[in-house]
Design a protein that fits this description.
single chain, alpha+beta, 23-stranded mixed sheet, 23 strands, globular, disordered C terminus
Length: 514
């Protein structure tokens, strides 16, 4: 990737389109004349421009600029003060089959080599990102809403970095957070298309004109807290808890009968709750509720551009790479939160000492460590898991980290880790066979890698759990539980119902007090 510093393209005040276009053309021409180091002999195929924005909520930008109607990706970690909204497509590629991760890697590498970056490199999130989603299995049904692998370079993205939970606590000083706009558009024979450039400029001007978010929040609150009138929002639910308990019993039987190195030790069984509303389900309202209730989780949304939106609030990081250092974690073993502080402490202590929960957790941590070692890495992990407390539920968590050598691409790590025993099982093949035989529905993006990667090899991927697929007025809510020796079908059902209940509250706009 070639970076062309053009700090003069940084005014927050809208300037005439002609001047903006002239700046882009001059910078691109200079690059083609070989004034900048690192230029490629291959003509550039894509241009990325980073510009400053006033402090802006990316979710507001995504909704008010119609991002939910097309291909999009939303990513937020409220407790970390990072939010990204990406919409429409400058470049998009899909892959399937066992080589999908390596094909995705080749695609990203090729496009990064042919990309020119302009604008201010000091802006937050100035790097263009490819947004990625991979389904649980490498093949999907013909009617599946998402391909096995999708990589999206958006036409535009809004990045906000700074004060954690700024959109939830808008009384904080405005100078504690920064926003930026990154536009990407294709070049035609190495030249800028005037219409593409105009679309970019018009989008930027629209974002500049958006309010600070207070009025948008007021409208959002009125939607989530408005009283329900007779017939205004009717829901129908379908959840087969008995079928789930039956699948758990079948897995326990397989675990009990297994012998030898290929014997089943754990399988994660999921269940789906089908919801149908009288009216369209609002993905922006659901996301707003999820990020408010779960600030320690990844809030995400992936849109296929054809009416399908997959969203959720996941507590589980799959991998994060920052400056060639890899971070991952084992997250397995669950318990509810207590109603009082005393019962909360008691439940956490029971989780720390439960042989069944510790066994389930150890299977995940050991698997991740072995898989990283097979790549030649030297992972480090804590000797004992910690308790990670979330709204309504708590988990055993073991952080794992190591250096990532230059020759190893993050997608190679993704391919090695997915699916971890936290969402698949042990051994991997035997567990996946149980999932395909017993679940009775397609997982699609559920329990799958979702995230982004930039041109420097920095990336972050979560696991798409605690999630739902929205299609118009219908939704499928997904949740699962790890089944090991000692599991009780009724208890596992209660765990899944607890996870589904949290999602259902968000979808029905019952997000609680703000």
């Amino acid at each position: 990737m070639v970076f062309t510093p053009q700090k003069e393209i940084r005014s927050r005040s809208p300037q005439p389109f002609g001047r903006f276009l002239s700046q882009l053309q001059d910078a691109l021409k200079a690059k083609q004349q070989g004034r900048f180091k690192g230029q490629s002999a291959v003509p550039p195929s894509c241009l990325s421009v980073a510009l400053p924005l006033p402090d802006l909520d990316p979710l507001q930008a995504l909704e008010q600029l119609g991002g939910f109607q097309g291909p999009h990706f939303y990513w937020e970690q409220p407790s970390q003060g990072l939010a990204i909204a990406a919409a429409h497509s400058a470049l998009q590629a899909t892959f399937q089959g066992p080589q999908r991760f390596s094909q995705a890697q080749a695609f990203v590498n090729q496009q990064q080599r042919r990309m020119v970056r302009l604008g201010d490199p000091t802006l937050p999130g100035a790097q263009p990102r490819f947004f990625c989603s991979f389904t649980f299995f490498d093949q999907v049904e013909a009617a599946s809403p998402f391909p096995p692998a999708t990589l999206l370079l958006p036409r535009w993205q809004v990045v906000r970095q700074g004060q954690a939970n700024r959109h939830l606590h808008h009384h904080l000083p405005k100078d504690e957070a920064e926003s930026s706009f990154v536009a990407n558009f294709r070049l035609h024979r190495g030249r800028i298309d005037r219409q593409e450039a105009r679309k970019t400029w018009e989008t930027y001007c629209q974002l500049q004109a958006l309010s600070t978010g207070d009025s948008w929040r007021a409208v959002r609150r009125s939607r989530t807290q408005a009283p329900t009138t007779e017939g205004s929002f009717r829901l129908q639910y379908e959840f087969d808890g008995d079928a789930f308990e039956s699948s758990v019993a079948s897995v326990l039987e397989a675990i009990g009968k297994g012998t030898g190195p290929k014997a089943l030790h754990k399988a994660v069984m999921a269940q789906v709750l089908k919801v149908e509303s009288e009216f369209l389900i609002d993905p922006a309202a659901a996301l707003d509720a999820l990020r408010s209730r779960h600030p320690d989780c990844y809030s995400f949304s992936v849109g296929n551009g054809a009416g399908g939106v997959f969203l959720g609030a996941s507590p589980e990081r799959l991998i994060q790479v920052q400056q060639r250092h890899l971070y991952t974690e084992a997250l397995a073993g669950s318990a509810p939160r207590g109603v009082t502080p005393a019962t909360d402490i008691q439940l956490a202590q029971s989780l720390r000492t439960s042989p069944k929960e510790l066994h389930e957790h150890r299977l995940v941590a050991d698997f991740i460590e072995r898989q990283l070692e097979d790549l030649g890495l030297k992972p480090q992990r804590a000797t004992e898991p910690q308790v990670f407390q979330l709204t309504g539920i708590q988990h055993l968590q073991t952080p794992i980290h190591c250096a990532l050598p230059q020759g190893l691409h993050p997608f190679e790590v993704l391919a090695q880790l997915h699916p971890t025993p936290a969402v698949g099982g042990v051994p991997q093949q035997a567990a996946c066979e149980q999932i395909e035989q017993l679940e009775g529905f397609e997982r699609s993006l559920y329990a799958s890698p979702l995230g982004w990667i930039d041109g420097q090899g920095n990336c972050e991927f979560c696991v798409g759990i605690r999630s739902a697929l929205l299609q118009g007025n219908q939704a499928q809510l997904f949740a699962g539980a790890g089944i090991v020796s000692g599991s009780e079908p009724a208890q596992e059902r209660a765990e899944v119902e607890l996870k589904l209940r949290t999602l259902l509250l968000a979808l029905t706009n019952q997000s609680g007090q703000r």
